[in-house]
Amino acid sequence: MGIAAEGLVVHFPGSPHPTLREVEMSVPDGSFTVLVGASGSGKSTLLHCLAGLITPTSGTVTDNGEPVLAPDPRRGVAFQRDVLFPWMSVAANIDFALRAHRVAAGQRRRRIEELLDLVGLPGDVGRKRPNQLSGGMRQRVGIARMLAGEPEVMLMDEPFAALDALTRLNMQDLLTDLWTRLRRTVVFVTHDVDEAIRLSDTINVLGGGRITNRITNPLGRPRPADTLADQPAYSELRRTLHHELGIERNDFADPPTP
Ligand SMILES: Nc1ncnc2c1ncn2[C@@H]1O[C@H](COP(=O)(O)OP(=O)(O)OP(=O)(O)O)[C@@H](O)[C@H]1O
Ligand SMILES: [Mg+2]
Questions:
Q1: Which atom of ligand 1 is nearest to the CA of 12?
Q2: Is 111 a member of any domain?
Q3: Which of 37, 48, 88, 194 is 20 to 30 A from residue 243's alpha carbon, by CA?
Q4: Cβ 209 under 6 angstroms from ligand 1
Q5: Is the minimum distance from the CB of 12 to ligand 1 under 6 angstroms?
Q6: Which atom of ligand 1 is closest in space to residue 45's alpha carbon?
Q7: Total number of domains in the chain
Q8: What are the pLDDT tens digits along the chain (258 aa)?
Q9: Residues 80 and 88 sit within 8 Å (Cβ to Cβ)
Q10: Does any ligand 1 atom lie closer than 6 A to the CB of residue 190?
Q11: Would the CB of 16 count as within 6 Å of ligand 1?
């Protein structure tokens, strides 16, 4: 079944144009769906609709056939900005999510260790505060905290955008590995074409308030960063996406004659 958006319109009060106009999108169970689009195209807005955080002006979102009217623990959200509580230790941040998920007190300490291990962090990180961690480590904690709620669907809004290139590749590998092992559904927002290609089964392109294209990723897995670019299918998909997103090749050819 999965998640489906039908005829989704979002028109923010005071805005001259609707942000989303008649979005049709389906996210099959177990898929890794990537949503790409230019800055301001409405990616976060659409993701928040799927999460039940925004009530659309019209249209519907369903999750396994049930209307999505409010946030639900079934759907975990990783926000665009990292939203750990800075005054709490890493362990307390994860514990917060476990409590919200009503995990029994006797099990929470072990569960925190398991979750840290799952995202590749040593147990002693639990005692640290978010500001003592690198950006990549904070993102790992954010993912651990999202997984604490055992969501069926992980809705992720550009979680790796602030990371350096190498850390970003490592986090993509971590997420792919988690997705393969846990078999959850992922909807991942990015405006990075290479990230979209590396992660996705399916790429939905958002532009002009609509899904303008839905592309099945032909590349097999795993997708090692160092050799991926050598595959012709990679270059072709990259070209297609650049074209879709209106990223023109700038060859600095002849200047226009006055
Ligand atoms: N709560 C809001 N009230 C009014 N306008 C909003 C609100 N949230 C978003 N918008 C507008 O909707 C449009 C899309 O915003 P959104 O954050 O969804 O884009 P985005 O594709 O996620 O961009 P980015 O890549 O920069 O994160 C923008 O024009 C934004 O100003
Ligand atoms: Mg956004």
A1: 4
A2: yes
A3: 48
A4: no
A5: yes
A6: 18
A7: 1
A8: 899 999 999 999 999 999 999 999 999 999 999 999 999 999 999 999 999 999 999 999 999 999 999 999 999 998 877 789 999 999 999 999 999 999 999 999 999 999 999 999 999 999 999 999 998 899 899 999 999 999 999 999 999 988 889 989 999 999 999 999 999 999 999 999 999 999 999 999 999 999 999 999 999 999 999 999 999 999 999 999 999 998 765 555 555 556
A9: no
A10: no
A11: no
Q: Is residue 132 part of a domain?
A: yes
